[in-house]
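Sample 3 of the quickstart, ligand magnesium ion:
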Amino acid sequence: MAPPKRLLIVDDNEDILSTFYEFFNSLGYEVKTAVDGFAALKVLRDKPDYFDCLITDLVMPNISGVGLIAIVKKEYPDLKIIAMTGYGDQPGALASEAEADLVLFKPIDLFKIEAKVSELIGQNDE
Amino acid sequence: MSTPLIGVSNSILKIKELINHVANTCLNVLITGETGVGKEVVAHNLYAESPRAQNSFVKINCAALPETLLESELYGYEKGAFTGAHKKRHGKFLTADQGVLFLDEIGDMPLTLQSKMLHVLQSGEFSPLGSDQDFKTDVWVIAATNQNLEERIQNKSFREDLYYRLNIIKIDIPPLRKRKEDIPALIEYYFRLYRSEYPTGHGIKPDADTLAKLTAYHWPGNVRQLQNCIKKQMVLNDWGKILEELPEDPEAAPRVSRENDTQNSDALFPNEANSERMKIISEFVDLSTSSEKLFEDISLKKIKKLASDKVEKEVITFVLDKVGWNRSRAAKILKVSYKTLLYKMSEFDVHPPMK
Ligand SMILES: Nc1ncnc2c1ncn2[C@@H]1O[C@H](COP(=O)(O)OP(=O)(O)OP(=O)(O)O)[C@@H](O)[C@H]1O
Ligand SMILES: [Mg+2]
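Result:
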């Protein structure tokens, strides 16, 4: 059997974080979470090449999602990135500029984001 | 050389760690915090730890200049661009190329210049006043403000799009009153610095009681105000007077009258316990070094020795004094051999008082 796909989910809202965690976990993903960009960066630097996909909020303290995406794109170019934002167009536009693979607007349909995740990671496998 | 970021509080340690992780990214940084908290120190530390440290660090204060002057300072101008432009002048965006441009007090930048700034940050290009040529520039933008930019966005005096573009990495420095553990460390560091700078100054360091008062004070002017107190002490050598002259905390009075309020006293005690702790630690550990060095320096074994030496010395002196410096009597009282006492006296440099 193929190993489970690994996700890193980043959001400063604990409710969103636990909802995402439960959902992806129940579908057989291995999920790790981080509460802001700095925490996420430390997880990534600790385990480079471990994750298949990063799902990140954009407006967060210390390192924003946009900053995280820019750093990840440079240091871990193979990691797929989905950005989500609840703050209107601005951060979303910056996330696209930082080359997120996908930008979604909150509120987010969990089944839809799961479909996108498996699509992105699937491409990665080929 | 840049000022080291002194401090042992969790907030300062976290900021140091963040600097360490992002200094090589050259992503725009926004530094916020009250006046005198160290925004410029943080900006300079980012620069010093970055691959751009060999290039220039160019600072511009967006609050200090009138709009047109600020614009020509930032972008430069061609000869004849306006009356008085007798010859061409480079702007800071050009002089900072390959280096850091530190936009201080960005919250005070006029709206029209904010649009132009946004454009430059988006495109990496700008043109000097009176020129139709575009210049490419590669600057690392670090901005700072003591204003609440979210509020300024609400009342439309700061552009939201510029805010998000600057706010890629955000470093918020809490006021000194929210990280009191840093106060003894800062005092130690600046005492040492000013001693070497004012060789004629002879102010003595604060004693435990004064240190407690300095630590409890609310420091509305933050580190800068603390520095000024220490400079004053170098000259006056009168802590009593310096403490007396500190402006009072307007919120202190109501806090005292609500002393029975459990929530309040709860918040008060850990702080006091903390400053008491830092006071004790500062006797044995040099808190004024960087955190990495500090952690290297701290070793229980070493501190145990320093602490017990200090107490032993006092006890030995006390007993000798009581018995008129009769060393064999003192050794009996202390329950050590005569030889041990002599050895300890010489180790701790204990001498009978001059007659
Ligand atoms: N953590 C620190 N360690 C050592 N020195 C500090 C620290 N924080 C501040 N200082 C010193 O305090 C003074 C004020 O700091 P700084 O100029 O960086 O404050 P600022 O936040 O930029 O203030 P303002 O908003 O008034 O411009 C400087 O002399 C600086 O060197
Ligand atoms: Mg400043």
